[in-house]
Amino acid sequence: MIESKRLILRAWRDADREPFAAMCADPEVMRHFPAPLTRAESDAVVERMLAHQAEHGFCFFALERKSDGGFLGFTGMMTLKPENPLQPGVEIGWRLAREAWGAGYASEAASAAIVHGFDSLGLKRIVSFTATQNARSQAVMQRIGMTRRADLDFDHPAVPEGHRLRPHVVYAIERR
Ligand SMILES: CC(C)(COP(=O)(O)OP(=O)(O)OC[C@H]1O[C@@H](n2cnc3c(N)ncnc32)[C@H](O)[C@@H]1OP(=O)(O)O)[C@@H](O)C(=O)NCCC(=O)NCCS
Questions:
Q1: Ligand 1 geometric centre to CA of 96 (Å)
Q2: Residue 76 maps to which CATH number?
């Protein structure tokens, strides 16, 4: 578990599945992904997080607001998939329900996750990447002190050639 002033990053619970599926079915939240997710696809993401936490001790954690216990989405770290051109390494990522945007939650959670990654997990570098048009996500990367790495930009291998979501920009932060 990771804690910040207003937030808790914690292991996934069964009760998170419903609000997570609602969030992943929102076309605005999923605008920079190929499509919104069905309930089964959303549940499969939760399963992937649970398996990753069991294997590595971390994942894209469920994000909870301390004041009311509300489920806000996820923030955390994942090892890069084998097909990712940046691998081997660890990425930081976030996805929040629309009602939770505009409050600084993603940046607050991500900053706490980075401290955890460097101080507790001993990582040397954490990367982040997103579709070129995803300005909000890039703003989070900038706010938490990541550096734009245009030299590492890549076309996402899981997105078809010519698709608007294929070109990705990369940011990174190194342990000091
Ligand atoms: C990417 C995403 C998490 C960013 O959310 P966000 O709310 O814009 O980012 P933050 O939580 O850091 O909040 C920053 C905003 O809160 C405002 N804010 C309000 N109170 C604040 C506070 N106490 N501290 C910091 N910022 C605060 C900031 O001014 C900023 O507002 P702005 O967008 O008008 O400039 C969100 O848009 C999202 O979930 N998108 C869909 C999923 C996605 O694309 N994920 C990334 C894929 S790689």
A1: 9
A2: 3.40.630.30
Distance CA 4, CA 75 (A): 12
Tell me how far the alpha carbon of residue 122 is from its chain's centroid: 19
Q: Could you tell me the residue range of the domain that residue 73 belongs to? A: 2-174
Contact 27, 130 (CB under 8 A): no
Q: Which atom of ligand 1 is nearest to the CA of 110?
A: 12
Q: What gap in Å lies between CA 63 and CA 9, rounded to an integer? A: 5
Which residues contact ligand 1 via a Cβ below 6 A? 29, 32, 93-96, 101-107, 130, 134, 136-137, 140, 143
pTM: 0.97
What's the chain's average pLDDT?
97
Strands 71-79 and 90-96: antiparallel
* Structural domain total, the chain: 1
| 78 DSSP assignment | E
The vertex-80 CA angle with 167 and 13, nearest 5°, equals: 110
- Kindly give, in sequence order, each residue whose CB lies less than 8 Å from that of residue 139, ignoring residues fewer than 6 positions away: none
Band of pLDDT at residue 64, cut at 50, 70 and 90:
very high
